[in-house]
Specification:
- The protein is mainly α and 326 residues long.
- The chain is built from 11 helices and no strands.
- It has one domain: Mitochondrial carrier domain (Mitochondrial carrier fold).
- The protein is globular, with a radius of gyration of 22 Å.
- The two termini are 34 Å apart.
- It is found in: Membrane; Plastid, Chloroplast membrane.
- Belongs to the mitochondrial carrier (TC 2.A.29) family.
């Protein structure tokens, strides 16, 4: 049996693998599966926290950079739609404005998220009962999101200020934000970011993991890249639609700068509803669902492929050094 991908739940009874000859789920085993059951595997090597952490860092960084570069224009359009007040006009130039500076933050943020998520998930899956694997995924997603938020929030603030034309470059954005608003300006909208991203991360990864588990049980094999991509797209689109109002609030608080148009989350919601109507809380839902749906497809597809390659590489026996044998 080949090395398992990191996202596979590590247990010791059922076998679901494309290269396990003759391995099949028995009907009696299928009947015993409960809601939110996890896919389990044969006994394998002891859990190596640092290897999982390292491979998660690499896989997360790779997936984050690929999806951010591919879909940045859609994200820019979404941000401008959400930031526009009343009948403000949307400009369509500079859709890649701020990409380079954003990648500087996206790479470590994605690395930290997946690097924390993977070992946390595997530890929790061993601690939780098998029929509660969904709660392990939810908790791991929230913990990963909280850890990466320390990098993601300043990155998001700078990116969105540049997307709305407030600054010409990332260094200028950092320098002027700190000069006018202090270091806290880089964390503008932090509470709204956590309010949006912690449930987003938890829900998206939980939906993705649970769909993969169910699909594996039905298919009785490991999933291929297109299947992982489709599941990732579905998980991203659903989660993106649900959390759009939180994203609108986060955008408004992050781009307001020193104007202080809103005094916190509650005032932000009340002001938007009073001045623009409840429908304004769904501004940008189309580009957001499209962006996160396609992004989920690319992110999870690249993530699973990278993790598989890293897992296979770490499982290869090291070649003997000829000089030592002489």
């Amino acid at each position: 049996m080949g090395p398992p991908a990191l996202a596979t739940d590590v247990r010791s009874s059922l076998v679901v693998s494309s290269d396990a000859s003759g391995a099949r789920l028995l009907d009696s085993e299928l009947k015993c599966l409960k809601p939110f059951a996890s896919v389990t595997m044969e006994e394998e090597k002891p859990f190596n926290f640092f290897r999982v952490l390292f491979e998660g860092f690499i896989a997360g960084a790779t997936a984050g950079v690929v999806v951010e570069t591919a879909l940045y224009p859609i994200d820019t359009i979404k941000t401008r739609l959400q930031a526009a007040r009343g009948g403000s006009q949307i400009h369509w130039k500079g859709l890649y404005s701020g990409l380079a500076g954003n990648l500087v933050g996206v790479l470590p943020a994605s690395a930290v998220f997946v690097g924390i998520y993977e070992p946390t998930k595997q530890k929790l899956l061993k601690a939780f009962p098998e029929n509660l694997s969904a709660f392990a995924h939810l908790t791991a997603g929230a913990i990963g999101g909280a850890a990466s938020s320390l990098i993601r929030v300043p990155t998001e603030v700078i990116k969105q200020r540049m997307q709305t034309g407030q600054f010409a470059s990332a260094p200028d954005a950092v320098r002027l934000i700190v000069a006018k608003e202090g270091f806290r300006g880089l964390y503008a909208g932090y509470s709204s970011f956590l309010l949006r991203d912690l449930p987003f991360d938890a829900i998206q990864f939980c939906i993705y993991e649970q769909l993969r588990i169910g699909y594996k049980i039905a298919a009785k094999r490991e999933l291929n890249d297109p299947e992982n991509a489709v599941i990732g797209a579905f998980a991203g689109a659903i989660t993106g639609a649900i959390t759009t109002p939180l994203d609108v609030m986060k955008t408004r608080l992050m781009v307001q700068g020193s104007k202080n148009q809103y005094n916190g989350l509650i005032d932000c919601v009340q002001t938007i509803v009073r001045e623009e109507g409840p429908a304004a809380l769904l501004k940008g839902i189309g580009p957001r669902v499209l962006w996160i749906g396609i992004g989920g497809s690319i992110f999870f597809g690249v993530l699973e492929r990278t993790k598989l390659l890293l897992s296979e590489r770490s499982a290869r026996p090291s070649k003997p050094n000829p000089s030592k044998e002489q």
